[in-house]
Amino acid sequence: MYRNLYDTDCITWSPQGRIFQVEYAMEAVKQGTCCVGLRSDTHVVLCSLKRAVSKFAGHHQKLFKIDDHVGVAMSGITADAKVISNFMRNECFHHKYVYDAPIPVGRLVLMVADKSQANTQRSGKRPFGVGLLAAGYDDAGPHLFETCPSGNYFESYAMAFGARSQSSKTYLERNFENFPGLSPEELELHAMKALQASLAADAELTADTVSMAIVGKNQPWKELSTDEVQSLLDKLNAESAGEDVQM
Amino acid sequence: MYRNLYDTDCITWSPQGRIFQVEYAMEAVKQGTCCVGLRSDTHVVLCSLKRAVSKFAGHHQKLFKIDDHVGVAMSGITADAKVISNFMRNECFHHKYVYDAPIPVGRLVLMVADKSQANTQRSGKRPFGVGLLAAGYDDAGPHLFETCPSGNYFESYAMAFGARSQSSKTYLERNFENFPGLSPEELELHAMKALQASLAADAELTADTVSMAIVGKNQPWKELSTDEVQSLLDKLNAESAGEDVQM
Amino acid sequence: MYRNLYDTDCITWSPQGRIFQVEYAMEAVKQGTCCVGLRSDTHVVLCSLKRAVSKFAGHHQKLFKIDDHVGVAMSGITADAKVISNFMRNECFHHKYVYDAPIPVGRLVLMVADKSQANTQRSGKRPFGVGLLAAGYDDAGPHLFETCPSGNYFESYAMAFGARSQSSKTYLERNFENFPGLSPEELELHAMKALQASLAADAELTADTVSMAIVGKNQPWKELSTDEVQSLLDKLNAESAGEDVQM
Amino acid sequence: MYRNLYDTDCITWSPQGRIFQVEYAMEAVKQGTCCVGLRSDTHVVLCSLKRAVSKFAGHHQKLFKIDDHVGVAMSGITADAKVISNFMRNECFHHKYVYDAPIPVGRLVLMVADKSQANTQRSGKRPFGVGLLAAGYDDAGPHLFETCPSGNYFESYAMAFGARSQSSKTYLERNFENFPGLSPEELELHAMKALQASLAADAELTADTVSMAIVGKNQPWKELSTDEVQSLLDKLNAESAGEDVQM
Amino acid sequence: MYRNLYDTDCITWSPQGRIFQVEYAMEAVKQGTCCVGLRSDTHVVLCSLKRAVSKFAGHHQKLFKIDDHVGVAMSGITADAKVISNFMRNECFHHKYVYDAPIPVGRLVLMVADKSQANTQRSGKRPFGVGLLAAGYDDAGPHLFETCPSGNYFESYAMAFGARSQSSKTYLERNFENFPGLSPEELELHAMKALQASLAADAELTADTVSMAIVGKNQPWKELSTDEVQSLLDKLNAESAGEDVQM
Amino acid sequence: MYRNLYDTDCITWSPQGRIFQVEYAMEAVKQGTCCVGLRSDTHVVLCSLKRAVSKFAGHHQKLFKIDDHVGVAMSGITADAKVISNFMRNECFHHKYVYDAPIPVGRLVLMVADKSQANTQRSGKRPFGVGLLAAGYDDAGPHLFETCPSGNYFESYAMAFGARSQSSKTYLERNFENFPGLSPEELELHAMKALQASLAADAELTADTVSMAIVGKNQPWKELSTDEVQSLLDKLNAESAGEDVQM
Amino acid sequence: MYRNLYDTDCITWSPQGRIFQVEYAMEAVKQGTCCVGLRSDTHVVLCSLKRAVSKFAGHHQKLFKIDDHVGVAMSGITADAKVISNFMRNECFHHKYVYDAPIPVGRLVLMVADKSQANTQRSGKRPFGVGLLAAGYDDAGPHLFETCPSGNYFESYAMAFGARSQSSKTYLERNFENFPGLSPEELELHAMKALQASLAADAELTADTVSMAIVGKNQPWKELSTDEVQSLLDKLNAESAGEDVQM
Fold this sequence. Notes:
The structure is a homoheptamer.
Chain A: H1 20-30, E1 35-39, E2 43-49, E3 52-54, E4 58-59, E5 63-67, E6 70-76, H2 78-99, H3 105-118, E7 130-138, E8 141-147, E9 153-155, E10 158-161, H4 165-175, H5 184-197, E11 210-216, E12 219-223, H6 226-242
Antiparallel strand pairs in A: 1-2, 1-10, 2-11, 3-4, 5-6, 6-7, 7-8, 8-9, 11-12
């Protein structure tokens, strides 16, 4: 059980051209709880499993409102996520103040990516241990972005990450061509199904273990209440009684 | 007995995406004396075991008044706690000076969390070795927060940490649904019982080994005097003579 | 499996006068996807394989527009490439603002090279892990440059790098003397053929796996649409049905 | 004889949540000569063994006057103590200049504690290797504080530290309840006895090996002269001839 | 195959009073391609082998024009050479701006030497891995300087360095006494012959593998065109057909 | 022959609460040549062995004049001593300029001590390797101080340090009670005898191997000439012919 | 062949109170070519062996003119010597500008010593690897100083250092008492003889391998021409034909 070579810090290249410390930070994202994001032509939905802190303390926060038109789901180190979401809120505020208009989602994500990359190329800091799904709506319509600890980011129609997210991805890949035209509620149901796919066979989603948020046309960022989540789950169960969900 | 790998400092990721130095700092919190916090709809109570420094020097301070409307209980390295509580006092003062209003409790906790997180992502500093239960009352009612060395924090209805705090948590989990409507004194009694649950079988609470403080509606932060603690203990014993407390 | 000697960081010389950390960063470029660039007397074409992020997220971006008259193809660490391309955009903007004229391509590349070299001679930073093919058109005609993590750069008539790029280079070497007089479309076809040469025997280019961009005389930077790429592929196949492409 | 693990510097946590470098600095305090402090309702007395530098150079200074109303006894690294006592003198002077009033003793001690803690959480510095007993008198009456290299501090009625101080503590614990009402001279005698308790069986206090100072109501900081110490010793011996001092 | 001792960095002396990191940087110069410089009473000629980047990209640049009256040939790390040549251009420009006169060659070389030396006596930087032959003409006539990674420099009548340069040096030593009175073209021919001496027995100079530049009285820095080089080679061959060149 | 543990640098505590690097610096003082200082009620004399640099270069300077009223003898690293004596000269000058009065000797020594202590608590510097005997005369009469690399200092009536100084100390201890009333010349003779005590049995003091200086009432700092030293030696020998000096 | 202990850097003391890195830097001086300096009552002469760079490049510069009234001979790392001599030139210039008078030689040497010492007490720098013989003439007459990498310096009547300098020293020791009254030429001849003493038995001085300079009363710094050196050698040989030079 020896230490790997060339993984001292994020400014050391391995002979194969890899930077292990950044890869290790990505591991923190992979081991967070599963998050799912998907979008139609008008809306974006984020959905995440939530782990209870304790019976009386609620759950670890997985969804963060950034501004009226944008929010994020996170996987990884929560404290890092909070720092980044505060950074994003400041940038939103600053942009509104300077330009009197909400910040375009892509520009906001670019700022997060730059901030993240900087921490992968400097000694004395460590890469952030958090991946984000950023959902927003601006003049160019709805957007869904994924950001990584490396500072990389992608725009996407649907995305899932975190523990056991592969099954969610499979569900999304099978269905994402239907998403563009869907209504917000249909989108929410798909998100629910994708999240469910990430569960172990004998586990089930409950209103207490799912966080869901939506943002879109004429729909500022809204995190669904437990009742709204429950009513979605009821529909889901009714549906899946009729037909077998294929994962 | 070799040193763990990847635990050199807080800017080194392990291949599993963990930051050991932060986890070690959390260990300092776990080994402090037990602290309990709980809240009703109007008040918050903090309660802590206290260890004597020496017969003539009183006890290690576990409860710190921050401002009239907020105070903290701490577990871990006392010197670190004092630095953080001074920081909180300054922020309270500054907020009052700028806005002519007491700082909202959540904002104050956020500042502590940011300060803590910064020390987990920079070389040349170490993570703080202290966890806080912050109790306060502001326009939005009573608040109970827990902060960690990682910079993470949670709002909660009840919480316990420190050595042997698991039993206290169990007590709180069994009873916290009754807390919202309770009177301040009932809340104090529950805090006492939860703390007692953390003791070894043959140990008993005395007025000398318990610190208790309360803050809430029309109730600025007040640390209970030894007499007040004693009278609570008397009630507790009277009660437990009548009925067996279930832990 | 011991660690190499003298490869601690980029400020350590080996006894043979080499700086291994820079060589390792170059390895990251070699393992990126293959990129090809070539130019006529009037135009420059960049062409790259693209790897899908996922079925619904499109592809890793390989071509970046910098300004109307210049763009780059990258191989290596994408996050590093984004930082460098943002740097280039800022320099373009700045030059336009100060001189009211587009920046000469060579000057822009020199700035990237200086920035890259600086990271190879200072502790506390790491060399960038990205190589660029920069294509542009200015008063001195079309330009094609290659930049390396070491801060080195070359002007060239044709160039290929990334995984399996040796076969592309061979194709380019055999044909580059014909390039000067070619029309833009002929140039695009040659780029396509050179890229195809880098594929494994049983692999084939599709409109989904190729990015292509052109810049030149009266032709601002334009990334070809999927349809345009497809029509090029059709011509290519028609052609290669008639004659065997020699690699 | 291997080096302990996790004791590289004061910004490294051990897996058990300890910071060894701070604990080692505390060891320097434990190995200094014994110091004793105790207070009545009106006065505070500090008393210390003193080690000769050489026959003609006097003794290592153990008691430091800070201001008219406050002084300290130290155990540990003398040079560190001198730096801290100069720091305290400056703060006293500064407070007097700004507020035209002597600094409250508690505030002064808090400043020392903050300065000490800062050195336990930063690389490039080491924790101070000195513990202080600070004795002072202000509007709130007499004060006795103990400070540690960790930045921790306690207010106390009586305290002893340094080599073999456990016996002194035992003496103080047995007698401190009588202290509040005592006259200054009675207090001095108790300090002498407590110090004597720390001696090996065959050793005896002499006017040359004891430093004693007093501060209190209408009594600015005064270090006793050799004659005054001798007269105290005479009384002590007369007394102990009559009754056996119980340690 | 253990690492040498005392070669960690350029601020570590070996017990024999050597600084290995500087010696290693000098190794990079020795392994560059061969460069030759020589001067008459009126002109200086620089001449270098050039290695092709690729068939279509031209050659690695070995000769750099700094100003009208000065240029350099380099051996070692090209990216370092580019940084230094830019530095030299800036200093030339600055001198012209301030004094309205071209910078004396010796002063320019001194600046390069100081810059190089600084990197050999400071941690956090590495010695430059490049040696220069600086050729220039100023009020004091023609100059030829050699600079080293150590910050050392020499003025010389003739010089050669890089791979296999020993044979070139031998040629120069045998002939340099004839140089002062030579015409520019004769000087160029001698440079060519000296360079040829560095080749393996079966290798031959071609117009494609030689760079040559000249600067002198009424002759601003000029890099010879391929045709001019070819015509020199023709004369060389004609000559050596008649007489055997002695090396 | 392994390296000691915990002696990496001066900011590392050993588990026993020691700082080895400071102790090692003190070793440099112990191995310097022997210095002796002693004072009467009106004068202070410093006396030191001096080691020849070479036959024609005179001797290593051991006594340094700081100002008219103060000077030092040093043992340890000469270059460090020169830096400190320059520092002292500057402080003297500065004090005279600001207050129009010579600096009190104690204040000057305190400044040296603070400067020395700072180097024992900071990384990136090393403790000074020099001990001083500072002799001066101010409004409070004559002063003799000893300073250590640790930043510690003592006022004393007589002192010796350096190689084999134990015998000198023994001489001083036996005689120092007679010093207060002595005339300057008697004081000088005692200094000479104390120094002689440090010599090996067969060695003898000569005018060439002794430096002596005196400062006191109406006696600005004066280093004795070789003749004056010789005449002292003559008296010493005459005396010791009559009576046996007891060491 | 293990690395010495405690020689990591110049801020680490060995347990014996030595700083090895400074001693290693002194080794660089010892291995430089031999330099000799000596002075009469009116003049100072510096003399040094010179090593050829190459047949056509002249020799490594060993003597540096600093100002009209002062110059140095160096042994050790040439690039370091150049930095120091430039520093000295700047200080001369600055002094002349501010005081309108040439800088006293001793003050100039003190500045070099301070600069050198600073590099022995700070991490991130290395001690200079150069020793100087500084010769000058000012209001106080002629001066000859030696400086060391440690920052130490000595004024001297004659001095030699560098490889095999012990024999030169022996010569100087035997003859230096005759120097004060000598004429410049006689002084030069002695310098030559001292230098010759350092040669191996079968080696001989030639006008090409000796540098000599003189400065003194009404004699600004002058480096002797080859002819002047040759004429000295001729006299030397004539003399030694008559009498045997005793070494």
